[in-house]
Amino acid sequence: MDELDTYARAAARLAGLEIDDAWWPGVVRHLTVLCDNAALVEAVGIPTTAGSGEHPPSSEAGG
Amino acid sequence: MEVNLPDIVAEVTAQFERYETAFLSNDIEELDGLFWNDPLTVRYGAGENLYSHEAIARFRGQRSVDDLERKILYSVVTTFGRDIAVTSAEFRRTKSGVTGRQSQTWVRTDDGWRIVTAHVSQLDLQTVVR
Amino acid sequence: MSPALDDAVGIAQEVRAGRLSAVAVAERALDAIAAGDDAIHSFTGVVADRALADARRVDETVAAGGDPGPLAGAPFAVKNLFDVAGEVTVAGSKISADDPPASADAEAVRRLSQAGGVLIGMLNMDEYAYGFTTENAHYGACRNPFDLTRVAGGSSGGSGAAVAAGFVPLTLGSDTNGSVRVPAALCGVFGLKPTFGRISCRGMLPFCDTLDVVGALAPSVRDLAVSFAILHGHDPADPVSADRPRDPAIDLGAGIDGLRLAVADGYFARGGTPDALAAVSDLADALGVSERISIPYAREARAAAMVITATEGAQLHLESLRRRPGDFDPMTRDRFLAGALAPARAYLQAQAFRVAFRERMAELFDTVDVILAPATPFPAPVVGQRDAVVDGSSVLTQPYLGVYTQPISFAGLPVLAIPVTTTGGLPLGVQLIGRHFAESTLLRVAAELEQRGLAGVARAVTPWR
To answer: What confidence tens digit (pLDDT) does each residue in C189-248 have?
Structure first.
């Protein structure tokens, strides 16, 4: 979580965003979900054949 | 009969382009001039059947120019001998996005190349719900 | 179905025949909204002057022997991210409320008006369409007409609630991850999310350009069919519009003989409450459908959809996030900010995955014509409900509402959400999923289900009736 926090602060500076301290926990929580989602996509790669469709239900946040 | 003699194709292509230029600027005089001035001339429009040069000219004078601008997407010019040709084109109206087709039969008359029959139709028909 | 006057086509038939005044219909809609919407918050504004002027023109056309069009005098309303000439497109936000009024109607609004429809007003939504519950901090939480303690779904919550409440028979919404299908399901109305690119998005404030589609919600299948017939078609001015000719005909009486139906299993047969899953299996049983089909990579597709949505949405609103972050709805702010921090690799990989996923999904339809799946994992949650329990584990209510809709829209497939009544009394929806550009097949199946009484709008208990 510390690493993600460091990354997020650097990325925020790059994007020209000033993020209120009160919002940080929420922002980092959503960024964590985003990273989890990105990791799922990264892991599956580019599907060239039909998969099994057998996956556990997902409960991650997002929207 | 010789199909697509290069000099004849060039002549008819120039006429086809002349028609398109006149169409886009709604140059009614030029458009009327390109149709064979005869009662036997026929033009089937997307929404009208016009028999005789006079009927076609009357329609031109009254038509809405609201959605006139169009782009030719594909065209074919085919000539037969030195005096007869057909042109076919797909177009898309810029404003409405409606696509359509235009077919013209050209004949070399004593006054030069003229359209003797034409047919225009729309591809995007109204969807019928039943 | 309910009496003819309860749907847009029924109203239009009466108006075209000169038996009903469009002005009277518009006045009735405006009165009903004034009397009942304080309790529901489905509308964020009405355009009474325009509505009455448009309705008068419809009546005059009929009186002069003309035909105002297939929606003659039918009242409709639009999610407030569609441009309405002279009105500010607020898109559920405080920030965009400072924008100048729109100079012209969005293309979809223009088309419905041109077909004789009478625009009544603009509808509540999640801020910038980022959510599934329409618990909007600026304009109030939109309530479900079936139970005012519950949400109407989102992000087109006002679009679902206004139809369920009987204020207007036809509304427009937008669907990026499920924003037409979720409120349609939770409010018990029909909702059509067409193929990506099928309806022009011109004049609609985007949420995520590569996923947004315009959709409609209505109390009857014929309303969806007629509005789709009017709305769909190529628009060269919309960069993502599909260059494809219109469907020549939609045959609602064709029945379902010869169509291959299958139920989505695996991912789509788990993770929902028994009620939500039974909605699909009961329908399949009633139709005698025993075929099961697996939708591959559904979980990854949902994950990729969330990455793309967050990233594109954040880029779209980056200037506002820099200058006025405090003016965002707390429900969306943290997610937009997180989206602005996502690395490029995550986005690009999600888009690359999407291209392949779309192909894999298209291949599924080699063996099937329509796939049945649940629309939401549970019926409408209570306003403010943070968590829900499914399969014995706790999930976050709001994002989890899209669990079954997101993978489907991610492939750009058309979906018709049909309302089914449950034993619990709250509405639920079933997704009818078709191959790309097969909206007319979905309408045909939905019409058959409606006709057999297997799908249809129940009467919401509304306080002013």
So the answer is: 999 999 999 999 999 999 999 999 999 999 999 999 999 999 999 888 899 999 888 888
* H or E segment and range at residue C278: helix C274-287
The token duo for C75 is: 């009242």
Which residues are within 8 A (CB) of B33 and not within 5 positions of it... i.e. 6 or more apart?
A: none
Q: Is A5 on the interface with C (CB under 8 A)?
A: no
Q: Is B123 on the interface with C (CB under 8 A)?
A: yes
Strand C370-374 relative to strand C118-123, pairing: unpaired
| Cα pseudo-dihedral B127, C1, C6, C10, rounded to 10 | 40
Reported as type and span, the H/E element at residue C292 is strand C292-293
Query: A15–C340: do the CB atoms touch at under 8 Å?
Result: yes
Q: Output the pLDDT for position C339.
A: 98
- Alpha helices by DSSP H, listed for chain A, are 2-14, 24-44
Letter string b/e over residues C306-325, b meaning 16 or more CB atoms within 10 A of that residue's CB? bbbbbbbbbbbbbebbeeeb
User: How is residue C115 written in tokens?
Assistant: 């077909």
Nearest to C418 by CA among C378, C377, C381, C375: C375
Given its phi and psi angles, is residue C188 left (phi above 0), alpha (psi -120 to 50 degrees) or beta?
A: left
Q: How far is CA B19 from CA A41, B27, B113, in A?
A: 55, 9, 11
Task: Give the pLDDT band (50/70/90) at residue C5.
Answer: low
Q: Do chains A and C touch (3 or more CB pairs under 8 A)?
A: yes
Cα–Cα distances (Å) from B98 to B64, B69, C249, C398, in that order, read: 15, 11, 17, 41
CB contact under 8 A, A34 and C338: yes
> Is C193 an active-site residue?
no
A42-46, C5-9, C244-248, range with greatest mean pLDDT: A42-46
CA distance C180 to C122: 15
Q: Report residue C2's pLDDT band, with 50, 70 and 90 as the boundaries.
A: very low
Statement: residue A49 has pLDDT above 70: no
Question: Rounded distance, CA C308 to CA C310, Å?
Answer: 6
- Hey, is the C-beta of A55 within 8 angstroms of any chain C C-beta? yes
**Cβ-contact A63, C276 below 8 angstroms:** no
Model pLDDT for residues C389-433, shown as the tens digit of each residue? 998 999 999 999 999 999 999 999 999 999 997 767 899 999 999
The answer, yes or no, to whether residue C372 has pLDDT greater than 50, is yes
Asked whether the beta carbons of residue A51 and residue C390 sit closer than 8 angstroms, the reply is no
β-strands C75-79, C213-218 pairing: unpaired
Residue B2's region, left for phi above 0, alpha for psi from -120 to 50, else beta, is beta
Q: How confident is the model at residue A55 (pLDDT cuts 50, 70, 90)?
A: very low
Complex ipTM value: 0.92
Do the Cβ atoms of C303 and A40 come closer than 8 Å? yes
Give me the mean pLDDT over the A15-35 stretch: 96
Does the distance separating the beta carbons of C322 and A18 come in below 8 Å? yes
The tokens describing C305, both together, are 């959809």
Average pLDDT over chain C, rounded to whole?
95
- pLDDT classification of B67: cutoffs 50, 70, 90: confident
Q: Which of C294, C361, C304 is nearest to A44 (CA)?
A: C304
Mean pLDDT along residues B117-121: 95
Let me know: does C419 contact C153? Beta carbons within 8 Å: no
Sign for the CA dihedral angle at C29, C30, C31, C33 comes to positive
**Distance (Å, whole) CA C310 – CA C321:** 13
